[in-house]
Design brief:
single chain, alpha+beta, SH3 type barrels, two-stranded antiparallel sheet, 44% helix, 13% strand
Length: 245
């Protein structure tokens, strides 16, 4: 009996001691946040991930325009590889439209070149070239919109005495850059039969002012000649932010 009482007393004491011990604190949970790829801080780098494929494709397109027909197949193959890489790239929702326009342009150019090799008629080739230019222009506009850039419109008429102007931040103009390896002609009018008034040397840029309705020609300020303008064939230059690679 005494042994039983001692045993029960020991057991109750142990339980009481265990009950008085505070439980361990809960584990610390570290919450990490992923930057929004469409946020202001991340968007420029995300846009450039898409744009680098467009720059590569523009370079290949320029090479194709200066390649003899017999050697064009290898250039087309390189362009198809660039397109596949662009297709495989995963983009955030805010860049889906930019990517779609990019791929549409690439497909049009490639299909037009393949048609040229296959002996397509001139009307079909001209139509393909026109569509490709329009798509390239659409891409440039979307690229500019995403980065908050603007192709500057021609000056508006002076306001009358009864009109007031609302102060707005000056838009950042785009630069038309010659990323090829040869000079690009600047014309007095948006036509290749017009007078050549200047050139853009390889790597040189000019401020883009406006463009023709179909986007085929871009009016620029002639480098080194403030206030003097000329026209450049849009397919031979790349529109980007001033100083952008």
């Amino acid at each position: 009996m005494i042994f039983a009482l001692v045993t029960i007393t020991f057991f109750l004491s142990a339980c009481a001691g265990a009950a008085s011990t505070p439980p361990p604190p809960p584990p610390t949970v570290t919450v990490t946040t992923t930057p929004d790829p469409c946020g202001a801080a991340s968007l420029p780098s995300e846009v450039n991930k898409v744009h680098k494929f467009m720059r590569e494709f523009d370079d290949a397109s320029l090479l194709a325009s200066n390649t003899p027909q017999a050697q064009l197949s290898s250039v087309i193959s390189d362009m198809q590889e660039i397109r596949r890489n662009a297709e495989d790239q995963i983009v955030p929702a805010c860049l889906v439209n930019l990517k779609q326009i990019q791929l549409a342009h690439m497909n049009t150019v490639i299909n037009t070149l393949i048609g040229f090799l296959g002996g397509a008629d001139q009307a079909s080739l001209n139509q393909g070239s026109d569509i490709a230019r329009q798509q390239h222009n659409q891409y440039a506009i979307e690229y500019a919109r995403l980065l908050g850039l603007t192709v500057v419109s021609p000056p508006t008429p002076t306001l009358g005495a009864q009109e007031t102007a609302t102060s707005q931040p000056a838009p950042t103009p785009l630069a038309a850059t010659n990323q090829g390896t040869s000079d690009v002609h600047l014309y007095a009018e948006p036509s290749e039969t017009s007078t050549v008034v200047a050139v853009l040397t390889p790597g040189q840029s000019a401020t883009a002012l406006t463009q023709t309705q179909d986007g085929a020609w871009i009016q620029v300020e002639i480098p080194g000649q403030p206030g003097q303008t000329a026209w450049v064939f849009g397919a031979l230059v790349v529109l980007n932010a001033p100083g952008a690679p």
